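Q: How would the structure tokens look for this protein?
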Amino acid sequence: MVWFFERGMEISTLEVRRHEQQFEVALRHPDGNEQIDVMPTPQELLTRLAQVPGTMFADGWRPMSNRMR
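A: Here is the predicted structure in token form.
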């Protein structure tokens, strides 16, 4: 699953991936760098996913609108 966020003209993505028996939360920054957090259980994944949007909102990111660019 992928979520898109925007801040001005910048775009960032938040992606959840399954890797073997674990989960990865990948945050791709506008410069192309990617931060990956590995979660061993579904509960830890849900906890992490509850934290990320609040941090992004505090940094000025908003869910990307569906309008055409």
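Residues 2-57 form one domain.

The first strand starts at residue 2 and ends at 7.

Upvote if useful.
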